[in-house]
Design goal:
Layout lengths: L4 H15 L8 H8 L3 H13 L3 E4 L5 E4 L8 H9 L9 H5 L3 H26 L10 H4 L6 H6 L1
Antiparallel strand pairs: 1-2
Helix pairs in contact: 1-4, 2-3, 4-6
């Protein structure tokens, strides 16, 4: 299984926000610059993170993004669900077309779909065993260690 680019970018963006010096908002321009993506693409990702309650968006002058909750309360699965959506696998209707026993086939398809749904829940639960705080040095998060904007300009 391979993480898609949006998920990886979202995890990095949230960690960057957590590490921002003085926990000041990090601008979209700064995040997009570091992630090497367009601001419009970043805004779509950040909106999903905001809706999920992972980041807060500050639109006033000097605004940007801050964490909506502590880093140790944000699981990797939270970010995956916010950006990638809930993992879903469902049947395509092929069994119903191939196997003529309508009642039995419907029952089997139901079992398959239930199993796929359970696997999706298990996937997110497993990812949430790892918080984003587990991915950074705790002393770096305490008051923020990096001024991302000034480092981008150098």
């Amino acid at each position: 299984m391979k993480a898609n680019t949006s998920i990886e970018q979202a995890i990095c963006a949230v960690i960057m926000i957590a590490l921002q010096e003085g926990h000041r908002p990090v601008s979209g321009t700064t995040l997009a610059g570091w992630l090497e993506i367009s601001e419009s693409y970043l805004m779509k990702t950040m909106r999903k993170l905001a809706v999920a309650g992972i980041v807060d968006s500050h639109v006033q002058r000097g605004g940007g993004y801050t964490l909506a909750r502590p880093l140790d309360e944000i699981g990797v699965g939270d970010v995956v669900a916010a950006v990638g959506g809930e993992p879903t696998v469902t049947t395509t209707g092929l069994p119903e077309r191939i196997f003529p026993d309508g009642e039995h086939t419907a029952s089997v398809v139901g079992l398959l779909n239930d199993s796929f749904a359970a696997a999706g829940r298990d996937y997110l639960e497993a990812l949430n065993r790892l918080s984003l705080a587990d991915l950074v040095r705790s002393d770096a998060v305490a008051d923020g260690a990096v001024d991302w904007a000034s480092r981008l300009d150098t």
